[in-house]
Amino acid sequence: MSTPWRCREQTGGAQPLIVATTAMHCDEDPETNRRRLASLVRAIKAESPETRLILFGELCLGWFWQGERRGRSYDDITAESLDYHQRIAEPIPGPTTEFVGRLAQQHDAYIAFGMGERVDGAPSESKPYNAMVLVDPAEPSSPSVGNCASRAACSSHPASSRPSQTSMASAPSC
Fold first, then answer.
1. Domain encompassing residue 58
2. 101: domain CATH number?
């Protein structure tokens, strides 16, 4: 087993920070993916209860779906993909961040995951953001959202310049 990363606490003492990374197979259905995410969190904590940070990849609610490609134009595929991501995107905070917040609190672990973010008040035709979310088990109802660099629109277009709603200040300082 490899040596765990070390995190210096405010007191100056070194304590191990046990991190679990995941590779989750995503379904088109967000509810199926929430169940898979919860199952992985439970399995990780059962096998390694000292785990403090569980990392999931981007777009955990769905997959980078581009439809059936045969005989179709790039524009048709892109439009269909955007429609899918607009349908599964959620506000932050929202149903999925609340769900993951309960998991984080129940298992006393930070959970980071990616999802399509819909910004309330934005035009319905606007692109969702590819957001990275960090949930603190001590503050599960106040998720932190990644910075501008990780908030790219869910398409092949350049990263958005929309400023982040919150900073990663609540993340464990390592």
1. 5-153
2. 3.60.110.10
What is the count of structural domains for the chain?
1
Q: Can you tell me the distance from the alpha carbon of 124 to that of 109, in angstroms, rounded to the nearest whole number?
A: 34
Residue 45, strand partner residues: none
Q: Are 118 and 128 in contact (CB under 8 A)?
A: yes
Q: Which two tokens mark 126?
A: 């606007």
- For 23, phi then psi, to 5°, come to -130, 100
- CA atoms within a 13 Å half-sphere pointing along the CA-CB vector of 84: 21
Helix boundaries (H) for 5-119: 30-47, 74-88, 95-107
Take residue 70 and report the two structure tokens written for it: 């045969």
- What does the pLDDT profile of the chain (174 residues) look like in tens digits? 333 444 444 556 667 889 999 999 888 899 999 999 999 999 999 999 999 999 999 888 887 665 566 667 767 777 778 888 888 999 999 999 999 999 999 999 999 999 999 887 666 667 788 899 999 999 988 888 864 334 444 432 222 333 333 322 333 333
Q: How many CB atoms lie within 10 A of CB 23?
A: 7
Residue with tokens 């995941």: 22
Task: Assess if residue 103 is contained within a domain.
Answer: yes
